[in-house]
Structure formats: C-alpha cells, structure tokens
Amino acid sequence: MNVQDNLAQCEAMIAKGSTSFYHAFRLLDSPRREAVFVIYAFCRLIDDAIDEEQPLFSIDELEQGFKDLEHADGHFIWDSLRWLFRHFKLSKEPFFRQMEGQRRDLVVTHYETMEQLESYCYLVAGTVGEMLLPVLHDAPGEAVTKSGIYLGKAMQIVNIIRDVGEDRERGRRYLPLELMKRHGYTEEQFDRGEVNEAFRHLVDELTELSRSWFRIGLENIGSYPVQSAIAVELAAGYYSAILNKVKDNRYEVFTKRSIVGSLEKGVIYASVKRKYGKPRQNGTETAVS
Q1: pLDDT at site 1
Q2: Would residue 285 count as lying in a domain?
Q3: Is 107 among the domain residues?
Q4: What percentage of residues in the chain have a pLDDT greater than 70?
Q5: In degrees rounded to 5, what are phi and psi of residue 75?
Q6: Average pLDDT, stretch 236-259?
Q7: Cα dist. 276→137, 226, 280 in Å?
Q8: Is residue 125 part of a domain?
Q9: 97 in any annotated domain
Q10: Is the pLDDT of residue 283 over 50?
Q11: Which domain holds residue 205?
C-alpha cells in the first residue's frame, strides 16, 4: 500500500474506535490530522495487545517492531509510523512509556493508593499528550507539556469511572482502596456491583479530580494554533461530558456504559464554534507525502 492508503487505514481505526476523538481531530489541517490518526492507531494496537483475547500483535511484538522501526513490516502501522517520524519531531520515549503502562495491567489488577492510580494514568494517557504535542503545537515548552499530560490523565480518570463494570469483569479494580475506605465503600460491595451513597461520593471525588485536571490541561490552549485548539477543546468537551452522563445514569457504571449522544456533542460543538468561529471542513484535502 502507498502512504495515502496506510494513513486511511489509521483513520478507519480511530473512526471505529473513538467517535469522540475522530470528530474532534478530523477537523485538523493535513498533515496534523493524519499524524493524530497514526498515533491513535498505534496506541489502539498497544491497548488491544493487553485487553483482547486474540490481538493482532502481542505487546512484545509491538515493542520490538517499534524498536526496529526502520525494518518493521507486514502491517500498515509500521509504514505509517515511519511517515509520522519523518514529518514530526517526536520522541520515542512516550511510546515506550505507554507500553510500560499497558504492561502494568498484566501485573497490577487492584489499586491501593491514589498515588498508584495517578502514576498509571500518566503512563497510559499522559504519555499520549506527550506524543500529540509535537503534532498539535508549534513550540510546546514545559508549561504546555505539563498541560498536555494533565489533559491525558483527566481523560483516563473518565475512562476509569465509565468502565468500572467492564474492568471488574476483566478482574480489575482501578478504584483505589484508599479512596474506597475514605468513603466507607467496601471491596465486597464493589464485587457485588453495589451503587450506594458511599459509591456516589467516591465517584464524585474522582469526577472532581478529573475536572481539575481538565482545567490544568486547557490552561495554555491559547498558545496552540487555532485548528489544534479547536480540536483539543472539542475532545476535552466530548470526554468530560461523559462525567455528566454518569450522573444522569444515577452512577450505574457496573451495568451501563455512559455514552454522550450526538445531541450533546452538537451542543459542545456549537459552544466551541462560538468561541473560535466555525471550524473549517477539510474534506478529502491532504498534504501528505
């Protein structure tokens, strides 16, 4: 396949795997747009290597292919990654830390402290912010990098709240025991999937933590190119809205997945449009080579 075909495959992965991210970042100009798609696709493969019963790649295969990227072949992701590193000055380190974080799911299934949880959020999501910044920002300094990391961590807390039930079915509990004890919620209640006042207070604390990290994550949004700022604000808005849906669903995260519908996304889009002006529709125009 040629470069265009490879990048189209990456776009198909994000369109299928995350409608929120896709609808936010598809508004970017090329080649930033395609670069985000490549990063998402590789992170998706890393995540699937741990979570899926029959993944396309094992985590070891992905790590080895990434280490020897110039010679890796047999899948469109390798040519796509080579294209990415040719066009943008990215460090490989966040990608390796991302793999380290996903490997943690193989050995740590129940979290004890908030400190452990924040470390995990950085490895699996803060690193994504580090990957994206050289694509989305023209000169990401220390403050911008800090914000990008916090934005990723905020989104991971949303994932943890939304996916409590799914993760429990996989034998995982990301809700730290320290937090559960603080609110009087027991491990036995968690195992039963009990939603009570203690659980709601627990989720409320995590929700406020996530919202505080979203605020830090958007502190330097004014320094981004306009199209990047729009995409980041849309992604943050779509994702933080999941927290509202959890509350609307009476905190039932054990058996019900909180999804932000097209109507709610339309309201968020309209708010961002008022702030920045209507985002350009890129259509099929590309600047990749």
Answers
A1: 72
A2: no
A3: yes
A4: 96
A5: -155, 150
A6: 97
A7: 17, 8, 11
A8: yes
A9: yes
A10: no
A11: 3-276
**What was the pLDDT predicted at 277?**
81
Cα–Cα distance, 98 to 258 (Å, whole number): 25
pLDDT for residue 96 is more than 50 = yes
Alpha helices in the chain (DSSP H): 3-17, 19-25, 32-51, 59-67, 76-87, 93-104, 114-121, 127-136, 142-162, 164-169, 177-182, 187-192, 197-217, 226-248, 262-276
Q: How far apart are CA 117 and CA 114, in angstroms?
A: 5
Question: How many whole angstroms separate alpha carbon 239 and alpha carbon 124?
Answer: 16
Query: Average of pLDDT values for 219-231?
Result: 97
Do the Cβ atoms of 124 and 159 come closer than 8 Å? no
The CATH number covering residue 49 comes to 1.10.600.10
Residue with tokens 């992905």: 62
Give the global pTM.
0.94
Bridge partners for 110 per DSSP:
173
Quote the CA–CA distance of 3 and 103 in Å, as a whole number.
30
Question: How far is it, in rounded angstroms, from Cα 194 to Cα 185?
Answer: 9
DSSP assignments along 31-47, one per residue? THHHHHHHHHHHHHHHH
Q: Based on the structure, what is the number of domains in the chain?
A: 1
In contact, 76 and 13? CB cutoff 8 Å: no
Tokens for 113, please give them. 């402290």
